[in-house]
Write a structure and sequence with these properties.
Blueprint (H helix, E strand, L loop, with lengths): L8 E4 L17 H14 L3 E4 L1 E2 L5 E2 L2 H14 L3 E4 L9 H4 L13 E5 L3 E3 L2 E3 L3 H14 L2 E6 L3 H11 L8 E6 L9 H9 L6 E6 L4 H10 L3 E4 L6 E3 L2 E2 L3 H14 L7 H7 L7
Parallel strand pairs: 1-2, 1-12, 2-5, 5-6, 6-9, 9-10, 10-11, 11-12
Antiparallel strand pairs: 3-4, 7-8, 13-14
The structure holds (5S)-5-amino-3-OXO-hexanoic acid and zinc ion.
Length: about 280
């Protein structure tokens, strides 16, 4: 069998839902995000998945907050920056697209694109087809590639439909988001189905929620895939032990991937593997 490529580890640093009450280690300000991102890079991450918060900790998709965070991160390290377009449940499409207004040196390297609606705990993460198409169009207009976020298997089919309409290119990069209450489960059978169901030549990352996060790094490593870890999806390093920052989760993921024989991608290698354009 051909040697697996180096694993791209993405740190999902803050998300929109986790609070400081749940963990005091959640980075919120641009400086906190940048300091943790630099440690994540050192620990083996090639990319960060970025949301931003207002100073009071509430979720936001404001361009200026993203600009400040991206600048602070890039000042400290060379990690790739993937901005969220999911934001928090209930945000409008314009609000969600705030980071897609950043151009030039502030342009993100990649942006997420969720291709369907899903129950999200007791809420609904609303992604009607016209909304998805608008976000896909804006990502395309910015000249960056999407990461297709799949909270359920049908979202892979929707990526095919978007490609038919010229809104995304195939092969694409997919993220299997497994174990959100209301979405598809963190189960190895799901992982194997979803990766087998991808459009030819596509690459994938696996983001499993909560206690599944670190075990799924090993499953992804064995299968030649990539992993997302971080406080957005899981705040514990082990049962009852809070991770003292995203970097601890990245370090543990890196250790597990290496034990499975996988090298870790540098940002430059990740750029090549995920076919990303260089920032202007
Ligand atoms: N916060 C969730 C509602 C993304 O970043 O693209 C959506 C989310 C997905 O986190
Ligand atoms: Zn997110």
């Amino acid at each position: 069998m051909a040697q697996a490529p180096p694993m791209v580890i993405t740190a999902a640093m803050v998300g929109a839902e986790v609070t400081r009450e749940q963990t005091p280690y959640l980075p919120i300000t641009a400086l906190e995000l940048a300091e943790d991102a630099a440690k994540c890079r050192e620990a083996g991450a090639a990319m960060v998945h970025l949301h931003v918060r207002r100073p009071d900790g509430s979720p936001s998709q404001e361009a200026e907050l993203f600009r400040a965070a991206i600048r602070a991160i890039r000042e400290k390290c060379d990690v790739l920056v993937q901005t969220s377009t999911g934001g928090a449940v209930g945000m409008s499409v314009d609000e969600r697209c705030g980071p897609l207004t950043l151009t030039g040196a502030d342009r993100p390297d990649m942006a997420t694109l969720t291709t369907g609606t899903v129950n999200f705990g007791d809420d609904v993460f609303w992604n009607a087809r016209p909304l998805v198409r608008q976000i896909a169009q804006r990502i395309r207009a910015l000249g960056i590639r999407p990461e297709i976020e799949c909270f359920d298997a049908g979202m892979i089919d929707e990526a095919r439909a978007l490609a038919k309409d010229g809104l995304i290119e195939l092969p694409a990069h997919f993220d299997f988001v497994l174990g959100v209450p209301g979405g598809i489960a963190a189960d190895v059978r799901v992982l194997d189905f979803m990766r087998g169901y991808l459009p030819e030549g596509s690459s994938w990352t696996c983001a499993a929620m909560g206690r599944h996060q670190l075990p799924f790094v090993e499953l992804a490593a064995e299968r030649g895939g990539n992993s997302r870890v971080g406080l957005e999806d899981n705040i514990y390093l082990s049962k009852g032990v809070l991770a003292k920052g995203n970097y601890e989760l990245v370090a543990e993921a890196a250790k597990r991937a290496r034990l499975k024989g996988r090298a870790l991608a540098t940002p430059e290698e990740a750029r090549h593997l995920l076919r990303l354009r260089r920032a202007d």
